[in-house]
Amino acid sequence: MKLGRLSHIGAILLIAAVPSAAQEGADQWERGDDPVTLTNGLRHIASNIYVTCSPHGGFVRISVPAASDHDMALAAGDVTSSVFERTLTDGRLHGFTNADDPLYAAALAHRGLNIDGKALGFSDKDVRYFSLLMRVCKDPS
């Protein structure tokens, strides 16, 4: 009976540990420096999309791999936006948004952001990193 109880407790501990391990593997963003804009921020690992800024500059830079200039749509939940001052440089399309754009609050609330037609989700860790990046990007005045 005691051995059965220990096995049961061990199984509960194993099940409790699985979400943490799965969650860690679900991280989709990492710290990265955009090779074109030379700004640092976050890089979506699978799509090579960068969300960066100059600290406290009030703007967010979005940079995506692209062969041609085109509108770059952004969305999170029901909130949509687009970049301005788009430029195609060295195979990357990049542009700006305002750091206080409601899109970013929606992205955090919905745990994801759609950039240029790609749905980019956030793990718990990604939410923390993205939230921190948005605070760094905002103009403090």
Give a description of the structure.
The protein is of the alpha+beta class and 141 residues long. The chain has 3 helices and 10 strands. The chain has helices spanning 2-25, 102-110, 124-137; strands spanning 29-33, 40-44, 49-53, 59-65, 73-76, 79-82, 84-89, 92-98, 112-115, 118-121. The strands form 2 sheets. Strands 1-2-3-4-8-7 form a 6-stranded antiparallel beta sheet, with helices on one face. The radius of gyration is 19 Å and the shape is globular. The model is unreliable at 1-25 (pLDDT under 50).
Task: Provide a compact summary of the structure.
With 141 residues, this protein is of the alpha+beta class. It has helices spanning 2-25, 102-110, 124-137; strands at 29-33, 40-44, 49-53, 59-65, 73-76, 79-82, 84-89, 92-98, 112-115, 118-121.
Structural class: alpha+beta
How many strand elements? 10
What is the element string, with H for helices and E for strands?
Answer: HEEEEEEEEHEEH
Shape: globular
Mean pLDDT: 84
Figure out the total of helices.
3
State Rg.
19 Å
Pick out its properties:
single chain; 141 residues; 4-stranded antiparallel β-sheet; 10 strands; globular
